[in-house]
Amino acid sequence: MKQLMKLVAIGMLAGVVSGCATGPKYSEVKNTIPKLSSDNGRIYFYRPTNMGFGSGIQPSVNLDGKVVGESKPGGFFFVDAAPGNHEVALSTEVEKKLTFTLDKGQERCVRMAVGLGVVVYRVYPELADPQQCQSEIKDLSYIGAAMK
Q1: Smallest Cα–Cα separation from 52: which of 23, 19, 75, 22?
Q2: Residue by residue, what is the 3-state secondary structure of the chain?
Q3: Which of 10, 16, 40, 72 is the most buried (most CB within 10 A)?
Q4: Cα 39 from Cα 41, distance rounded (Å)
Q5: The pTM is what?
Q6: Pure H helices in 36-148
Q7: Could you read off the pLDDT of 14-65 as tens digits, one per residue?
């Protein structure tokens, strides 16, 4: 039991120390986001800010087996992708996956949520509806590649 309490305390401390994403807010960059090509779809990845619990866990975000970003609390980024079936995977002590279909010209939002695993917190991907995405992403920081 003492070991479990130590692990929980270390996890909480790591969450407080690690902080959240920094960068320009969505409201500052939304007008500079490039127009989506008619041949592709766009996937927004975002993780709402959560105070403390699980913030230190920031797994890589894999899209179809390729790392496309990191899951940082308070951050968002986007990836343009070909239409078709896609798989998003986040790995902590277990791998969590999400599969979905993206159409030409479609924008999808993948919300990265935090949940308690057996011993530690884990981050898992879930599709967000457009209203939820717009509401949650507006105050988040852009953490993707530099935009031209």
Answers
A1: 19
A2: CHHHHHHHHHHHHHHHHHCCCCCCEHHHHHHHCCCCCCCCEEEEEEECCCCCCCCCCCCEEEECCEEEEECCCCEEEEEEECCEEEEEEEECCCEEEEEEEECCCCEEEEEEEEEECCCCEEEEEEEECHHHHHHHHCCCEECCCCCC
A3: 72
A4: 7
A5: 0.82
A6: 130-137
A7: 444 445 677 889 989 999 999 999 999 999 999 998 766 677 788 999 999 9
Please give the Cα distance from 117 to 140 (Å, whole number): 25
Q: Which single residue is written with the structure tokens 């969450």?
A: 15
d(CA 58, CA 92): 8
From the number of C-beta atoms within 10 Å of its C-beta (0-12, 13-18, 19+), residue 43 rates as buried
- Give the chain's domains with CATH numbers: 2-142 (2.60.40.1120)
Cβ(62)–Cβ(68) under 8 Å?
yes
